[in-house]
Amino acid sequence: MEAMNPLPSPSVVLGTWSWGSGDVGGDTVFGNHLDTADLKPVVDAAMAAGLTLFDTAPVYAMGASETILGELLADYDRESYQLSTKFTPGIVDQYGDSMEQMLDASLSRLRTDHVDVYWIHNQDDVEHWTPQLIPLVQSGKVRQVGVSNHSLAQIGRVVEILAEGGVPLSAVQNHYSLLFRDSETTGVLDYCHEHGISFWPYMVLEQGALTGAYGVGNPLPEGSGRAETYNPVLPQLTELTAAMARIGEAHGGLSVAEVATAWARGKGTVPIIGVTKTRHIDSQVRAAGLSLTEAENDEIEQLAAATGVEVRGGWEKPLQQPGTGNRALTG
Question: What is the model's pTM?
Answer without folding.
Answer: 0.92
